[in-house]
């Protein structure tokens, strides 16, 4: 486990330390502490350490339940008997590993072990996810023992790196005045992570769309769409849209709660206004990603419609019939094949008779 610790004075710099969970309680409480912990899944290897951490910072049981249930959207708050405040949320977003194939075409490659549900490697499949949890606890800045603690469970390495870069900046002073500025900072990094995933996925989709359109111009049964790959592409879009919608809902709930806290404050500082603006901006950024996913949904539906039309295309079926008939050794007699098909499944009304 690792964490940032600042000194006892308000102007002391940050210090980064690697510590065990058991040593946390013996350390002096700084004004601001940021802890990077493993993902909040109490499995056999880390159950004892996580339970100790949960107890030390009064993490509610519902926080663990959210992870066990695989929640994509969650935001909770609580007020302690010691006048402390707690807020938390979980984040889950579809991760898609994109790599170029032998022809330098972007392709989705699975990075997770094959499960019993999926026993073979499927085209354009990836079973991995981004999962993280964030728990914020603080005592109001007006009190003599005011302090802020943020615990990041399973946070991306990029987020930890960004916090390190802020080690000598005055950002932590704003975090002490308004702890929700930490959540705003976290969401800023989460957006960058998700936006990179969506853009990489868009490159894959663009190639699949192009290939499908090219195949639509050809005739013959040997030209067929890659149905498994298309199914997984469509499934990824659904999961990405769900994650984007969940992030927007979390941000909206967070902004609503932050606004209510600022109204309770007798004299909200400038930091509160800055946090409000940052949260709103994060919401706008996720809305932009959401719009891009809506576009991908519509483009995917267009591809599906095109494949359906092509599978019932009379010209394609006619070309296939002609090829079969002309390849027969016995070409005597009448060869009759339809020139028009309807969608009812009934025999066509028109037919052409060729005397050979």
In one word, what is the shape? elongated
How large is the radius of gyration? 29 Å
Supply the helix-strand structural class. alpha+beta
Helix content: 40-55%
Which spans have pLDDT < 50 for at least 5 consecutive residues? 4-12, 329-356
Number of strands: 11
List the strand order in the largest sheet.
Answer: 2-1-3-9-8-5-4
What does this protein look like?
47% of the residues lie in helices and 17% in strands. With 356 residues, the protein is α+β, with helices and mostly antiparallel strands. The chain has nine helices and eleven strands. The chain is elongated. Strand 1 and strand 2 form a beta hairpin. The N and C termini lie far apart (83 Å). It has a seven-stranded mixed sheet with strand order 2-1-3-9-8-5-4, sandwiched between helices. Strands 6-7 form a two-stranded antiparallel ribbon. A two-stranded antiparallel ribbon has the order 10-11.
Layout of strands and helices, then pairs:
Blueprint: E1 2-6, E2 14-18, H1 21-24, E3 32-37, H2 47-56, H3 61-68, E4 76-79, E5 85-94, E6 98-100, E7 106-108, E8 129-138, E9 148-153, H4 157-165, H5 171-177, H6 180-216, H7 227-264, H8 270-311, H9 314-326, E10 334-338, E11 351-355
Parallel strand pairs: 3-9
Antiparallel strand pairs: 1-2, 1-3, 4-5, 5-8, 6-7, 8-9, 10-11
Helix pairs in contact: 6-7, 6-8, 7-8
């Amino acid at each position: 486990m690792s964490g940032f610790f600042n000194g006892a004075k308000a102007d002391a710099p940050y210090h980064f330390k690697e510590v065990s969970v058991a040593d946390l309680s013996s350390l002096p409480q700084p004004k601001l502490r940021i802890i990077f912990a493993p993902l909040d899944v109490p499995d056999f290897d880390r159950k004892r350490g996580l339970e100790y951490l949960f107890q030390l910072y009064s993490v509610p049981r519902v926080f663990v339940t959210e992870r066990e249930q695989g929640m994509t959207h969650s935001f909770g708050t609580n007020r302690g008997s010691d006048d402390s405040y707690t807020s938390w949320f979980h984040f889950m977003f579809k991760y898609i590993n994109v790599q170029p194939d032998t022809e330098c075409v972007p392709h989705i490659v699975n990075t997770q072990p094959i499960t019993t549900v999926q026993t073979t490697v499927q085209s354009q499949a990836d079973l991995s996810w981004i999962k993280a949890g964030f728990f914020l606890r603080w005592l109001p800045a007006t009190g003599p023992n005011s302090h802020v603690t943020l615990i990041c469970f399973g946070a991306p390495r990029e987020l930890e790196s960004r916090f390190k870069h802020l080690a000598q900046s005055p950002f932590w002073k704003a975090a002490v005045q308004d702890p929700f500025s930490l959540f705003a900072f976290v969401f800023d990094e989460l957006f960058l992570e998700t936006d990179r995933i969506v853009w990489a996925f868009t490159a894959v989709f663009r190639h699949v769309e192009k290939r499908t359109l090219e195949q639509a111009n050809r005739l013959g049964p040997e030209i067929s769409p890659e149905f498994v790959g298309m199914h997984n592409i469509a499934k990824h879009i659904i999961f990405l849209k769900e994650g984007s919608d969940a992030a927007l809902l979390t941000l909206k709930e967070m902004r609503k709660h932050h606004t209510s806290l600022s109204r309770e404050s007798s004299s909200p500082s400038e930091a509160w206004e800055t946090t409000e603006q940052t949260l709103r901006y994060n919401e706008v950024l996720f809305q932009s990603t959401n719009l891009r996913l809506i576009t991908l949904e519509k483009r995917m539906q267009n591809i599906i419609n095109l494949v359906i039309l092509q599978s019932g295309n009379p010209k394609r079926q006619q070309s296939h019939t002609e090829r079969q008939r002309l390849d027969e050794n016995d070409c005597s007699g009448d060869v009759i094949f339809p020139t028009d098909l309807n969608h009812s499944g009934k025999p066509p009304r028109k037919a052409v008779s060729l005397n050979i």
